[in-house]
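S1.2 Input.
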Amino acid sequence: MKISLVTPAGKQSRAGNRTTTVRWARILRQLGHQVAIAEEDDGKNADMLVAVHAWRSAKSIHAFSDRYPDKPLVVLLAGTDIYKFQHSHREETLSSMNRATELVCLHELVHRAIPKKYAKKLRVIHQSSPPLSTPRAPSTRWFETVLAGHLRDEKDSLRAAYAARMVPNESRLRVVHLGKAHDGKWERGARTEMRSNPRYIWRGEVPGWQVRRQFARSHAMVISSVMEGGANIVSEAIVCGVPVIASRIDGNVGMLGEDYPAYYPAEDEAALAKLLTRAETDPAFLKDLERRCRKLAPLYAPAKEKAAWRKLLKSLGE
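S1.3 Output.
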């Protein structure tokens, strides 16, 4: 089958949408299909369209649906689709959802946030990640906590830095932030924070192998987002055995589970500082987080994601 895979993220992007697209293309090719990736496509030469992002890919979705109403159309609901654009750009976003043959989401709680009429065509496909190629060896000098994600509003990107200011003086906490600034405002904010906060280091955008190297030397990972569709960086941390400290939002709870004990109220740096301090000073707590992540890891195995796609394609009459 010829599949057109549309994403709003360009070839040079290291954004989550691009990472998802490249991984899905690899999976679909492994399943025996021809896959062409494009930022925009009406699917003229395709048997099926898979679109990443209901709103940002709306033009391609609508063109394909109008031209080929009987061909399968799969739409991934990104976090901004679910928690932002279905309200601020309602007509286009809901039209994409309506036209889709199947809707794919990346965490277990998306059904709570979208119109109930779309629940019957909603499928969860967990994003996968390979394990680390070498054993973890956390820093002995610092209590290193990694924050991996682009600096932008949805990520609440400096919250961990603010929390780091509030830990006890004797703490060895160091927050290492990897990710590209969305704009000059965020870049200036990160650089200003580094000058006044010795516990915070922003290294900018780095390739994936450097992210994984930082995982290997980190004691924990923070995801501070105020909205997420199911971040691949969380599944990567889980599979790599890195304990996750997360804002309590559906996108994180839908991946880590309701009973996971390392949530803090979103945008609350004081609560985050307490969790970071506990993770550093309470070995049993940190060990429990590691154990819970190991238990979740099979959900985010590459074979599991591949099987989910095989099942989806079979349901579409592949």
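S1.4 Remarks. The chain has a mean pLDDT of 94.
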